[in-house]
Amino acid sequence: MKKRTGYTIFRVVALVLVVLSLVAPLLWMVAASFKTNVDIYDSSKALVFTPTLGNYDTVFQQANYLQFVFNSLWVAFAATVLSLLLGVPAAYSMSRFNMKKSALVVLMARVIPGVSLLVPWYYVFSNLQMVGGFGVLILSHMFVSLPLIVYIMMGYFDGLPEELEEAALVDGLTHIGAFRRITLPLSVPGIATAGILSFIFSWNNFMFALVLSGANTKTLPVAIFDFVGYASIDWGGLMAATTVVTLPIMIIALFVQKYIVSGLTAGATKG
Amino acid sequence: MSAVTTPSKAPRSANVMPETPGWARWANDHRKWLFAAPAMAFVIALIIFPLAWTLYLSLTDSRGSVRAESNFIGLQNYFDVLADTDRFWPAVGRTAAFTGVALLFEVVLGMAIALLLWRPFKGEKWVRVAILLPLVATPVAVGMMWRLIFDPNIGMANQILGWVGIGPQPWLAGQSSALPTTIFIDIWQWTPMVVLILLAGLTSLSDEPQEAAMIDGASAWQRFRHVTLPLLMPTVIVAVLLRGIDALKTFDILYATKGRGGGSFNEVETLNVYAYGLSFDYNEYGRSSTVLILFFLIIIGVMWALTARRKKEAARR
Where are the bilayer-spanning segments (chain A) (predicted)? Predict the structure, then answer.
């Protein structure tokens, strides 16, 4: 069994290295957000420093970040709810009626480079006076959420036995009734998975908001750039801003780990 | 629904539902499209029209403003772009290098880490959380974070190199080191994605082929090379496909680390960054649309090749 212990030691060392290389940069970012800019420039203060909340003060008081946090929350929430409303029934139909080509059309949205959509969108929505408003941001983020939700939910519905619905039909429910009273309640874990991932992808989305948002509607990923000047960068403020953007998502990820993993790997192991 | 109708005494059967109103029965009969159509209509309205317009713009000399008068110039943009060795072809090269190198590392590292995680162990949950963190982090924020770490003067990266006696490197600031550095950032952020997909694939494999090989005296490497890897191949291709599409379209970390145009010397200007710049910095809509159409064809081509490969792998089993 000597070989076994050898492998165990190797495995532990390797895993520790993996975890360190993934987590250390994030911890470094959080640490820098509690440093003054003087301390960030001083390499002797790398690990030992007097923490300050000054950067967060800048972020929330001067840079008006509460507004951007709200914008991001609202856009991600609205895009997710609307995409679920459109996407869950569509995924159900596509799964039950085996609508492969229709599914492909929706999944195209994932493949197309976003820039090719932005020019026409910008033109149309600026004619409608919508650029800079929440409506167009939510629409564009739905474009990210909807294909994701359809993809995840199709896999989920494929895995739900049809017999359950057939039993409900025999008991006198209509097809739609069976969907509403049997399938939907059984799909709550799948819907949660799809919803959480859609929220995260929308929260993290940058390019659509970069072009379509206005000064008052910009989301957090765009607002980060407020700390990058042409001449210099306010590193402390920037790191506080990046922490404000990433930390909520990471905390959510801690609690709903299983859902995120099942959503990201949905359909990957099918033959 | 209405209270006036006399309740039917007819015995209920599965198909005749007397108290169902007409609209509900109609809905029931047409549920296939009733369910699917709204989502399809949304996607088609937001894709087909812009795509058709992009195709049209690529045949015109539109610039400055999309509202401005533009002339139909046929395939001239395509000839110009395909002959452009100054910006277009270097951007194609960078896109290919970025995607190819990042994918190679992500798949090899991802496979190694997935194998490390495969069999249960103590503290597994925490390792899995650590793997999830880069994946859910906002790409723009990740770019900024590495920008600080890779800062040539105050960054931690050069300090660590200093401890082992290596001189400071320019990282993102260097003309030739910028692209490799952004590839590193992509690998850091997205290897976990490959790990998760491969791990899901590994967990779904049955133990029997492994055990059979073990009884036949196969070494660990032989078992991996001749048993696990062939069985896992379809999953590997899915991982490459999903990651590949996103890697080709990488924008956020490039914009966050190098800004417009992929830096002052276009060091990290990939096709997506180039097209964005043409549209929104230079307002060269005709040319940008041409680049986008070509870019789109490349993406479709890569996807098609990988899907065909996956079908072949799946058929072999």
Answer: 12-34, 73-92, 104-124, 130-154, 190-215, 235-256
